[in-house]
Amino acid sequence: QVQLVESGGGSVQAGGSLRLSCATSGYTRGTTSMAWFRQAPGKEREGVATMSTPVGHTYYADSVKGRFAISQDNAKNTVYLQMNSLKPEDSAVYYCAARLGVAWSLQEIDYNYWGQGTQVTVSS
Q: Per the omega criterion (within 30 degrees of 0), is the bond before 54 cis?
C-alpha cells in the first residue's frame, strides 16, 4: 500500500521560505505523478504543483508560478515543495498526493493516494 508522509510545515513571515517534504513508500518504481495541494479553512482544495517521474516535467498553478518549485530525490523516495517569497494568502494545510501513471494534473480527483497534510502559516 502506498504511504505518503508530509513534513516541513510551520510559521513564517511574509517574504520568507519553507521547504515541504513528502516521503513515499509502498509501491514498485515506475511512471508516477506527484502533486502538492493546499486547502485553507472555508475554501476549496487547490492544486499547487505537479511533477511526473522519472521524466521530471513540472506544472504550477498561476498563483505560485515563479515562487514555488517541486522536485524529487529518487534515492530517498522523497518529493519536495520549495516555497519562496511566501504571502499570507499561501497559508493553508498542504497535502502531498500521488497516483500511478502520468497525470500532470492539478485536480484532486486524479489522485488516489494522499498524505495527512502539514500546516503552513504566513503572517504579514
A: yes
